[in-house]
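Chain A, query sequence.
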Amino acid sequence: MVSVIAGSSSEDIAKKLAKKIKANLIKTEVKVFPDGENKITLKGKFSKGKIIVVQSIYPPVDSNLFQALSLISKAREYSSEVLVVIPYLGYARQDREFLPGEIVSMKVLGNLFKGVGASKIIVVDIHSKIGLKHFKIKSQNITAILDLVGYFKKLNLKNPLVISPDQGGKQRAKEFANQYKSDFIALKKQRDRKTGKVQIKNDNLEEVRGRDLILVDDMISTGGSIVKATEFLKKQKCKRVFVACTHALLINDAEKKIRKAGVTKIISANTIPGKTSFVDISNTIAKAIK
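Chain A, predicted structure.
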């Protein structure tokens, strides 16, 4: 029988996943000492066979990463097959050397996961698939797009149009629109690599006038891109603006800024638990495992 270890950052997904694949659930207890050290204790008995570790790596990123590595290391003592499910993979944006001297963190992660004994890694909507090339073990990227589309199909939107906030997310928006049976466009965004300031470079967009819009992105961190896109689209006399994303980090007051810009609702997956995580992706993960 398969065992599922529920990391502290992904308890909800792990429980649902274990139920769907009829696996034995192992819970974790984490104690954080005053100096920031983590003491991790597993609660439950392992079955003989494959072990699945489920742990998202969102803030506090380094702490959740250490917990993931620790859980994999412990699981390896009980099984030769350790499958690691990381719903949200921190450090995925650091997949290449953008400026001279930058360390490629994804390369470091690849070495760490292999070193502690992971057999295979499954991630959800990784920011850049290039990052997985740094992993020296089997890796698979799955998407939450179908799950997100399923949620939006239940909403009564007026002549909806799917929009990517930048050209980099064009393929994602296209896939979303194909599944949703609607049109899509991609905005032209320019970001300063040093300051992080974002600008929208499009001219007027007549096709958004009077329509409900779905801004599709893989992740929202500070919300800067979504805010700029929404402000621009509101000037084009669109109707409501909804946001669909897999990973809603929503750092600091990002959610407040996004709503202030005019977004009606933010809908995200439960890769990162929070107020906006209406969409469960445990079924998609279960299919990937099977």
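The radius of gyration is 20 Å. The longest strand covers residues 24-32.
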